[in-house]
Structure formats: structure tokens, C-alpha cells
Amino acid sequence: MNILVTGGAGYIGSHTCVQLLDAGHKVVIFDNFCNSHSNVISRIEKIAGKKVKLYVGDIRDKSVLERIFCENQIDAVIHFAGLKSVSESVKSPLIYYDNNVMGAVALCLAMQKFNVRRLIFSSSATVYGTAAEAPYDESMPTGSVCNPYGRTKYFIEEILKDIFAADPAWYITILRYFNPIGAHENALLGEDPCGIPNNIMPYISQVAAKKLPLLTVFGNDYNTHDGTCVRDYIHVVDLANGHLKALEKMVHNNGGFNIYNLGTGKGYSVLELIRAFEKVSGQKINYKIGPRRAGDLPIVFADTKKAEKDLGFKAKFGIEKMCTDTWNWQKNN
Length: 333
Ligand code: NAD
Ligand code: UD1
What we know:
By secondary structure, the chain is an alpha/beta fold. It has helices at 11-22, 39-48, 62-71, 86-91, 93-113, 148-166, 200-208, 236-252, 270-281, 305-311, 319-332; strands at 2-6, 26-31, 53-56, 76-79, 118-124, 171-177, 179-181, 215-218, 230-231, 233-235, 257-262, 268-269, 287-290.
């Protein structure tokens, strides 16, 4: 198939493009490089040994979007393009609503116009918010989200539900990611955040590499086994594979509207993650215990049964492989 991948130069998108190419699909990437580098494209091509077609532009730009659909017979779209910093979204909510929500609407309008009705959307476990408790399953209520970034994901999910309700000829799959970490094992692709990282894994690896002096652990007084927050970390290569499984299912079944968690179903605390990273890297991670971060939930992990049953998706890689590949990426870049 010919797959349009918006945000295909980004962290998760780039790993997914490699797997799409490996599986024999053609890939059209649409990215404005606002949070990625253009050299990612040649790295994707190097790993896969195949070319991709690239359009540089903004998903809100109707003229470029329509040109892409005119010039390419697109069979399905995987929509990664979006902004993802929680703290930035709190400071500049309109930028997030404009980029993420308006971007998704512009994409769906163009898809509708060109009669392309297969869409996979990158959502987040953040949509479960505070209304439910781990393990989160897809039938649990969503929407009690405490930041604008998370609300963009929730709003887009609701928009997609409305699109499908109005026209069931669409095939829409929403994937709710838990905490993606890790990198491609050859260290050509990985997460490269601008400035000081917000997320734990790039922070730990930059402390290990002595780029940052000290990690602050946000709270050790939670009701968890060691007092620090528990998350469901998933290797980005496993996560990328979840998109291929979702695509297969979409094509072979009669589609419809589906939502799947992509996680491992297993939670690790912040301290356990630090220890796992120290073990594989041989580096000491300097850390101190600080206050809780506003908006953090104590325990987040996935119920993975639905993705396992419907998609045949099961994450393969454990926490040590996630840390090994992150460290390898950090050392080589
Ligand atoms: P990323 O920032 O590495 O990749 C996003 C890509 O989209 C970047 O290459 C960026 O340049 C591009 N982009 C952003 N806005 C654009 C626009 N208006 N037009 C064109 N391109 C644009 O992020 P990622 O970690 O790969 O995340 C991919 C998607 O998954 C995002 O939608 C994100 O919200 C979602 N997600 C990520 C995580 C995570 O922890 N990484 C968790 C849950 C959901
Ligand atoms: C965060 C976002 C979530 C988003 C996801 C991916 C919040 C509340 N949630 O998830 O919406 O989808 O990133 O972008 O921001 N930690 C530290 N020290 C640090 C950084 C993190 O102790 O310097 C802890 C946090 O308290 C948390 C865990 O590490 O318990 C994971 O944090 P992080 O990587 O930011 O992911 P989430 O908060 O789970």
C-alpha cells in the first residue's frame, strides 16, 4: 500500500516508516521538521534500503495537503504530526489547539475530499485522566484530562468518533500509547528532544552522558511499592510494530472504528527505571528526590488484552533492552 505518514520524521513516526518499508509498503512522509531533523529521512532510507517520498510542509496547509493527495494514490494515513510537550501546552494552549486539533481537522477534510478513508491516529494514555484506575482498558471513561496537550488528544478522538458516526465508510483506528522509550538498535533513530527534556528517559540518558548534572525524581511519597510513580514503558520499536498490526487489521477486516492501548501491561517505578539504566550502561545516575510534579498520576499501565486479541499485538522487548538501546543512541549521537 501507499501510506501517508504525517510527522514521519519524528521519534515514533521514523521507526514506523522503517517497518512500513520493510513490510513492502510505499511511504510518503509529510513533516514540517518543527521537532525533528531532515537527516532522519536519509537514516530511514539507509536502514530500510528503500526510498521514501518527502513533502515538507504544515498539515494545516490545505494546498500542500491536497497536492499530496493529487500526486499520490494514498491508501491509508498514519497521523503522528503534532506537538507533545505538556508544559509548553499549559503555557501556550492556543498553539496546541491550533496545531493538533486544527491540523487533524485539515487532514480529515483533505482525506474526505480525495476519498481516502483509512486513518490511524496517535493518541495517548493521558486521555484516561483521573476518572479511572490502572490497568486502563479501552472501555473506561476518558476526558478528565488535566492539561491542554492531553485535551487535544481527547478532542481529536471525539472528532474522529463524530466523523465515523456521520459516515461509517471510514476506517478509523485510535492507538493510545503508554510511555514510549528506547531507540532503533543501530542507533540511527531515537528521541532527540529540543532543550531540557521533560520526559524521564531522555533526562536519565543525558545525566548518564554528563550533559545534565542531576535528575530530580518527582516525589517518593506516592502509594506505590517504593513511593515513586509507576509507568508502562514500551520500546518504540514495539510501538511502531503496533501500527503495522493495526494497518493489517484495518485492511483485512471490514474496518470500522477501533481503539487500542499500546503498552506492555507492566509497570516500573522511577527508581526501578533508574536502576535498570545504571545496570545496562554501567553509569551512575545522580538523582535527588524532589516534590511531586503537578498532574502526575501514581500508577499508569495498560490493559493489553484487546490489542493482543484483535491485533495479535504483544510487546516483545523488556526494560533492559529499552535502556540498552536508549544508551546506545545517546552515546552515538
Ligand atoms: P515527535 O515530536 O518526535 O514527532 C512529531 C513530528 O510531527 C515531528 O517530526 C514534527 O516535526 C512533526 N509536526 C508537528 N507538527 C506538525 C505540523 N503542523 N505539520 C507537519 N508536521 C508537524 O513526537 P513523537 O514522540 O514521535 O510523537 C508522535 C505522535 O504521538 C504525536 O502526535 C504525539 O502527541 C503522540 N504521542 C507521543 C507520545 C510520546 O511519549 N512520545 C505519547 C503519546 C502520544
Ligand atoms: C507525560 C505526559 C503525557 C504524555 C507523555 C509523553 C504529564 C503529566 N504526562 O507522561 O501526557 O503523553 O509524557 O509525552 O506530563 N519523572 C521524574 N523526573 C523527571 C521526569 C519525569 O521523576 O525529570 C517521572 C514523572 O513523575 C513520571 C515518570 O517519571 O512519574 C514518567 O514521566 P514522563 O516521562 O514525563 O511521562 P508521563 O508523565 O507518564
